[in-house]
Design goal:
Strand 6, helix 6 and strand 7 form a beta-alpha-beta unit. The protein has one domain: TIM Barrel (Alpha-Beta Barrel), CATH 3.20.20. The protein is α/β, with parallel strands linked by helices and 328 residues long. The radius of gyration is 19 Å and the shape is globular. The chain has twelve helices and eight strands. It has an eight-stranded parallel beta barrel, surrounded by seven helices. The longest helix has 20 residues. Helix 3 packs parallel to helix 4. The chain is 41% helix and 11% strand. InterPro entries: Aldolase_TIM, DapA-like. Pfam families: DHDPS. GO terms for molecular function: 4-hydroxy-tetrahydrodipicolinate synthase activity. This is Dihydrodipicolinate synthase.
Length: 328
């Protein structure tokens, strides 16, 4: 029996499909760990040139809970300037607005709109919370379902189906890794009604095959070109090549699953010197969290190194039309 399709109208503004990097926050290599806005600017442009279809700031990978309200606004202004200077002023910038209360999340939503964000993403898990925030947000809202940081609370298919009917809730990021949940949603909603994104690149190919439209992956901080390439190959109909690259990406991403400290170390090790950011402390987590120890550093290099050859073989993005079809 055919699955009944939703009759809700298409949303006015949807998150463009593709691979999005949840960008790490970089600090000055000093005890006080102020935000290094120059480094953030440089890293942002590196990710865009690397072919990422959009960037996510101030989420779990961005250590949002450790940033002040003013620091968050400073970062957003910096990255909006970075993409504008690169020639893609309309490049998609998604910003986390999860707060400790509904009021705080609404306040953060207003800040992000004023500072230049394109979309807002929240990781709380109650239907009423999402509805209240979406009602007040000037930006379209993406639901961030991440049971690992919400004491195991997991939005199920029925929850997401109900939230999808809100005119200002446009997509979900499934960091729960539940491909079956994604299939249930894509069987009922078109991408124009409610889009489904995987929460990492190690199951991007299955997400696309199931009707999803992309993913958000911490590994893109280290290998932006290779992670985006899976999506690009799939869209071009080169599925065998996409599947082959998916195998390598999935193995490299295993290190990111272990901890944020390893993701940041990997970025520093493989990318830092390319960007003139040679001090490893720039990539340390913010205190009180600790950087990776020597044993895990060595393991991370071994695990991530499988993707170096593929990453180096992919050319950087050239601008004219812009990134992701936007800009000049």
């Amino acid at each position: 029996m055919p699955i009944s399709k939703s009759s809700i109208p298409a949303k006015a503004k949807m998150l463009p499909p593709g691979v999005y990097c949840p960008v790490i926050t970089l600090y000055r290599p000093a005890k006080t760990q102020e935000i290094d806005l120059e480094a953030m600017y440089t890293h942002c442009q590196y990710l865009v040139r690397g072919g990422q279809h959009g960037l996510v700031y101030q989420g779990t990978n961005g250590e949002a809970i450790l940033l002040s309200r003013e620091e968050k606004k400073d970062i957003l202004r910096t990255v909006r300037k970075a993409v504008t200077d690169l020639g893609v002023p309309d490049y998609p910038i998604v910003v986390g607005i999860s707060g400790q209360s509904t009021n705080e999340s609404i306040e953060l939503a207003r800040d992000t709109a004023e500072a230049g964000a394109s979309f807002a993403v929240s990781e709380e898990v109650l239907r009423g919370f999402y509805t209240d925030v979406a009602d007040e947000s000037r930006l379209p809202v993406v639901v961030y379902n991440f049971p690992g940081v919400t004491s195991g609370i997991d939005l199920n298919s029925d929850d997401l189906r109900a939230l999808a009917s809100h005119p200002n809730i446009v997509a979900v990021k499934l960091t729960c890794g539940n491909v079956g949940k994604g299939v249930r949603l894509t069987s009922q909603f078109s991408p124009e009604q409610f889009s489904v994104y995987g929460g990492s690149s190690d199951f991007l190919f299955p997400t696309l095959e199931a009707g999803g439209v992309g993913c958000v992956t911490g590994l893109a901080n280290v290998f932006p070109k290779a992670t985006a390439r899976i999506y690009d190959l799939w869209v071009d109909g080169k599925k065998a090549e996409a599947r082959q690259l998916q195998d390598v990406v999935a193995n490299a991403e295993w290190a990111c699953k272990k901890s944020l400290a390893l993701t940041k170390f990997g970025a520093g090790y493989f990318v830092g010197k390319k960007l003139g950011l040679g001090d490893e402390k720039t990539f340390w987590p913010r205190r009180p969290y600790l950087p990776a120890n020597e044993v895990m550093k060595k393991w991370t290099v071994e695990v991530m190194s499988v993707l170096v050859e593929e990453e180096d073989a992919i050319p950087e993005k050239r601008f004219g039309k812009g990134a992701n079809g936007v800009g000049k």
